[in-house]
Write a structure and sequence with these properties.
Distance between the termini: 25 Å
Number of domains: 1
Helix content: 40-55%
Number of strands: 9
Oligomer: single chain
Radius of gyration: 18 Å
Shape: globular
Strand order of the largest sheet: 3-4-7-8-9
Strand content: 15-25%
Order of helices and strands: HHEEHEEEEEHEHHHHEHH
């Protein structure tokens, strides 16, 4: 009956599957791609918060704030104002999960077309944490077939080069502080299939398998 009243993709989409997986991973205290969700359970998480990049105030090739699909760690955000991520006083960790369903990573600006979503998110994390000892991570979550189709594993290998190139299209320099944080950021790709299979609660796992199958059905994902 859902499909007769609203577009099912309002519910069955990448945003909701990744939120559900994050919440259950925290409850079960599992580890995904060396990210310990048990420790993150004591931190904050938020959906669609804004995170600043080094280029939000530049005169040449300026860009806006980045919407983080899911951001986790030591931060505050006030959606009553801008909705921008602000680090806490002594941050330990900050990470972003980019959730995809059937699409590729979006491209960058007109003058830096290869500066895609992955590079932009990692650069934002590095910019935000540059003066701290805060650990950072970035994960792309997507269907296994989409990871293979768009070769996300290979794309994340281009992040450092793309960020360095992005600075060459602006008047600001690529500081050693930001470069260090870019290098140290833990970057990985995980399929929803593998993530769901990591869960220990079989009842919840089966519910999420059914939800994910609906996501694939209504988003026309093969495989």
């Amino acid at each position: 009956m859902l499909s007769e009243n609203i577009n099912p993709t309002i519910i069955y989409n990448e945003g909701w599957i990744v939120r559900l997986l994050v919440i259950e991973s925290m409850l079960e205290k599992i580890t995904i791609e060396n990210i310990e969700f048990g420790k993150l359970a004591n931190k904050k998480w938020s959906s669609e918060a804004l995170i600043a990049s080094p280029f939000v105030t530049t005169k040449i090739n300026r860009e806006g704030y980045t919407h983080a699909d899911i951001i986790l760690g030591d931060f505050d955000v006030n959606y009553g104002e801008r909705g921008e991520v602000v680090l806490t006083d002594i941050p330990e960790i900050l990470g972003i999960i980019e959730a995809k369903m059937g699409s590729n990573l979006s491209k960058g600006t007109a003058n830096a077309p290869d500066y895609n979503q992955a590079s932009r998110n990692v650069c934002c994390l590095a910019h935000t944490t540059q003066s701290t000892d805060c650990d950072t991570f970035f994960i792309i979550a997507a269907p296994q077939s989409i990871i293979k189709k768009y070769n996300f594993e290979e794309q994340i290998n281009q992040i450092r080069t793309q960020i360095s190139e992005r600075f060459s299209h602006s008047e600001i320099s690529y500081s050693k502080e930001i470069e260090k944080k870019v290098i140290e950021c833990k970057v990985s790709v995980i399929s929803y299939e593998d993530w769901i299979n990591t869960l220990k609660d079989n009842e919840i796992k089966n519910i999420l398998i059914d939800f994910y199958n609906q996501c694939k059905k209504y988003n026309k994902i093969q495989g």
